[in-house]
Amino acid sequence: MELKDFGYELPPELIAQEPVEPRDHSRLLVLRRAGGPLEHRRFADLPVYLHPGDALVLNDTRVLPARLLGRKAGSGGRAELLLLRRLERDRWEVLCRPGRRLPPGTEVVFGEEGRALLRARLGPEVGDGVRLADFTCQGTFEAVLDTLGHVPLPPYITRRPQDPERYQTVYARAPGSAAAPTAGLHFTPELLDRVRAAGTEVVPLTLHVGLGTFRPVQAERVEEHRMHAEYYELPERSAAVLNRARAQGGRIVAVGTTVARTLETAATPGGTVQPGSGWTDIFIYPGYRWKAVDALVTNFHLPRSTLLMLVSAFAGRERVLQAYREAVDHGYRFYSFGDAMLML
């Protein structure tokens, strides 16, 4: 399977630069995998498509203020670090900029002049531009990060939202992500109440989004791409609810590709979801046999991305690309702050 098979044309003006308000007023394109015309709705209409006994699964990760702006000790040159993954108490995997001017051994300081609250000593590259960094700080790392860090936004978003919480889901709970699980950005507390009132269970799990989800695919043959591992937790109660819903004829509705990847990692060949925690590097592309996910809520994804490959595996590549063409024709907004799809 070739990378070029997952390309499509997108006018730049359809890349959403800011979110819709209220959250659930974004548009919703409904695709039925069995066929039939696409439906054009609003996200607030989602409960219409859910049944009593279904389980709606959310990723409750919270985006870290993982972008750190500092300077090189001694020279004062600018340096930027993006935290990707915590390996030990004070050691992280990071991306650095400007990487060529930050060799191993460089110390980067963060904070006001003469009062550095945080320091990082850069180590070697461990692959794909990822570096090791050892941190020391005054106080707890989390408190210092809240003071100095900035929530990172994808590079195609050129205007920062006035409210940083707008790049968090309303149910974000567990800090640890370098990016938001964007399919969940459309939910409001009131919409979730309506989902529950209609008889659908709302079930949490956690996957901390890292570089693996968004790293560009370099291999021309899709099968040769390798994902970075991301940490997940699937609580016992959540697994029990999901297995009961399936046993009683309900559907598991995954909100976002991160939820889909977690559930498929945790599922047995027979579709039973097992609780637990660990690291997943699962790569889902067409030809994959789904075990646990019956329906998928997702945003519109970048061309030639692993996310587009995953949704193509769920609904069929030609069907998905046809839906994307129709979304472009109807002026849907794309990517993180854009509109959503529901695949049934």
Q: If you had to describe this structure to a student in words, what would you say it looks like?
A:
The chain has 344 residues and is of the alpha/beta class. Helix content is 19%, strand content 29%. It contains seven helices and 17 strands. The strands form three sheets. It has a nine-stranded mixed β-sheet. Strands 5-6-7-10-9-8 form a six-stranded antiparallel β-barrel. α6 (306-315) packs across α7. The longest helix is centred in the C-terminal third of the chain and has 13 residues, at 317-329.
CATH topology of the largest domain: QueA-like
CATH superfamily of the largest domain: QueA-like
Series of H and E elements: EEEEEEEEEEHEHEHEHEHEEHHE
**Spans of 5+ residues with little confidence (pLDDT < 50)?**
none
Q: Under the CATH scheme, which class of the largest domain?
A: Alpha Beta
Q: How many helices in DSSP terms?
A: 7
Structural class: alpha/beta
Query: In which order are the strands of the major sheet placed?
Result: 2-1-17-16-14-3-12-13-15
* Distance between the amino and carboxyl termini: 25 Å
The outline comes out as: globular
User: Can you tell me the number of structural domains?
Assistant: 2
The biggest beta sheet is recorded as: 9 strands, mixed
